[in-house]
Design a protein that fits this description.
376 residues, Hexosyltransferase, 9-stranded mixed beta sheet, alpha/beta, glycosyltransferase, 38% helix, single chain
């Protein structure tokens, strides 16, 4: 019999080959959680899944609880009050003390608002001078220093620069740990230049404190902190104010004499009006301008008081002449007492300061002098 080949317009040889490949394809591998005889997961697999889910839930809840606790209670971080190489050792000490007692949340202000910052410039070899001041008007311990700061609205610190001498560092560190009354500034004490150190103080004080005035003082003066606070707290019409005991005088061009000025030819025969160096004050706007200036953008004279005075002329400030800042003896109005010519070594500074301390007019008189009775 004749054989017939059936064909369809919808299938051809290529379709047959695809069908053969699909039939030859191996069956899918069974899941490890399924048995060949049953498509449903066993109890053991379900138990493993439940345990894993419970563990993940517990970890998630614990993470949420930890995050909530961290948000509600800030971390106990000891704040070291630095700005570059500058540091206020008293606030560093207070911050560490609060952290040690578990009260860091009480905090220490990063840049506290005060009436004035009084920087007493000193050196590594001037421990005797600092001791003499601490025996008289400058508090000896951190608690007393903090009380004076709060009572007057002023901040008092000894200002000192940096050194690479490990022995000097070690000796000073013992003094820091005892008194905590220093402000370290970015100035090289080994290559001592007072104008640069003075600018470093103003920059550091401005960055560490929000003050109305910044006061530079020497470490051989007798000071009445309460009267200084009263002076600085006065209302003034000028935002740019330069307070000091003003002077003029001949320019010293003989290099063999004290106060020699190598740039005297730029000044002339007589100095312009400027404050005596032992103590003077600059208002906040003046110091803000100095803090933003590069050291090499301002002319430095040999003498620090002349250097600052020259900048005050350029900045068009108000010169406030206050003779109470340069009294040779104590009076009812004296703010700062120091000898002129200055008390220089080998004079006994401690003996001189103790004599002033024992004078009632110096240490125990009222802050303000009595007002004269008006005529009837």
């Amino acid at each position: 019999m004749p054989q017939y080949h059936h064909s369809s317009p919808y299938f051809d040889d290529d379709d047959d080959e695809e069908l053969i490949k699909k039939r030859r394809k191996p069956p899918p591998r069974p899941s490890p959680f399924l048995t060949p005889s049953s498509p449903h997961p066993p109890r053991r697999a379900l138990l493993i899944l439940v345990i894993l889910s419970a563990v993940c839930l517990i970890v998630g809840i614990a993470g949420i609880a930890f995050a909530a606790a961290a948000i509600r209670r800030p971390p106990r971080i000891v704040t070291v009050f630095r700005c570059g190489r500058a540091e206020d050792t008293l606030r560093t000490f207070r911050s560490k003390s609060l952290a040690a007692t578990g009260r860091p949340e009480e905090g220490v202000a990063a840049r506290p608002k005060v009436i004035g910052v009084v920087g007493v410039l000193t050196g590594f070899s001037s421990s005797d001078r600092r001791a003499a001041l601490r025996d008289t008007w400058f508090p000896r311990d951190p608690d007393a220093l903090s009380r004076l700061d709060h009572a007057t609205g002023l901040v008092f610190r000894f200002v000192i620069g940096q050194t690479k001498d490990p022995k000097k560092k070690a000796v000073l560190q013992k003094e820091v740990e005892t008194h905590n009354d220093f402000m370290f500034v970015d100035a090289d004490e080994d290559n001592y230049k007072l104008p640069y150190k003075t600018v470093a103080f103003f920059k550091a004080a401005f960055n560490l404190f929000d003050a109305d005035f910044y006061v530079k003082a020497d470490d051989d003066i007798y000071l009445r902190p309460d009267r200084l606070a009263t002076l600085l707290a006065k209302d003034r019409a000028h935002r740019l104010t330069y307070i000091g005991c003003m002077k003029k005088g001949p320019v010293i061009t003989d290099r063999n004499m004290k106060w020699f000025e190598s740039s005297g030819h730029l000044i002339g025969n007589e100095y312009f009006l400027h404050a005596h160096g032992p103590i003077y004050a600059l208002s906040a706007d003046i110091v803000a301008a100095l803090a933003s200036a590069r050291n090499d953008s301002l002319r430095m004279f040999n003498n620090e008081d002349v250097t600052i005075g020259s900048w005050m002329l350029a900045m068009n400030v108000n010169h406030e002449d206050t003779k109470a800042l340069c009294e040779p003896i104590c009076t009812s109005t004296s703010i700062a007492v120091w000898s002129n010519p200055r008390c220089l070594d080998p004079c006994d500074l401690k003996e001189k300061l103790m004599e002033l301390q024992n004078v009632s007019m110096c240490s125990n008189s009222s802050t303000l002098p009595p007002e004269d009775d008006e005529d009837d």
